[in-house]
Amino acid sequence: VNATYRAPMDLRNESRLVFAERPNGQTTIEKLTDPNQMKATHKCTLFVSEGGVLKMKYGSVACNLMWDDYQEPMLPFDDFIRGQQCSEIYLESDMIAVGAIMNDKPELLTQEQRYGTNVYNRSEFHCFSNYGAGGQFINDTTPDMTEYEGYFNVAEKYQY
């Protein structure tokens, strides 16, 4: 079964993305306001994409700080996410976010908010920097300043 994932219509992301054309090196800046622009192709319940890499610069982002040690057995997800601290990180230099694209619809945890944004039942992008800041990406807290450059590797055909 092949399907095209489309983000829910109530998903709001008004951040700017920079698109670079590989052959000529030209870049364009677009503002993502239509969730139908965010697509990935999947097959059955398997990952068919390695996800993507985002390079973020300028402004600030909110990230959950990841624990050094996890309680065993693992807490249910709702309890796990409530136990994490969320910090606003000023981007001193580029920050890299590495993620995976999943083939099931994300659901909002409406009772959990970070910097005015509802948290999804899973966050797939983890951030790293060369100055020690990072964590689990939650939100862009300065959408008019933060700039993203994205590299995505979505599969066109799945062989098994």
Task: Give an overview in words.
- The structure is a single chain.
- With about 160 residues, the protein is mainly beta.
- It is globular and about 50 Å long.
- The protein has a single domain, classed as 60s Ribosomal Protein L30, Chain: A, CATH 3.30.1330.
- The N terminus is likely disordered.
- It has one helix and 13 strands, in the order E-E-E-E-E-E-H-E-E-E-E-E-E-E.
- The chain starts with a strand and ends in a 6-residue tail after the last strand.
- Strand 2 and strand 3 form a beta hairpin.
Question: In summary, what is this structure?
Answer:
The protein is mainly β and 160 residues long. It has one helix spanning 77-82; strands at 2-6, 16-20, 27-31, 39-43, 49-57, 60-64, 86-90, 95-99, 108-114, 117-120, 126-129, 135-140, 147-154. Helix content is 4%, strand content 46%.
* Shape designation: globular
Low-confidence stretches: 1-8, 11-19, 34-49
- How many β strands by DSSP? 13
Strand proportion, as a percent range, falls in over 45%
Average pLDDT value? Answer: 65
Strand sequence of the main sheet, in spatial order?
A: 3-2-13-5-8-11-12-6-7
GO cellular component, one term: nucleus
InterPro entries: C11orf54_DUF1907
Domain DUF1907: 38-157
Protein name: DUF1907 domain-containing protein
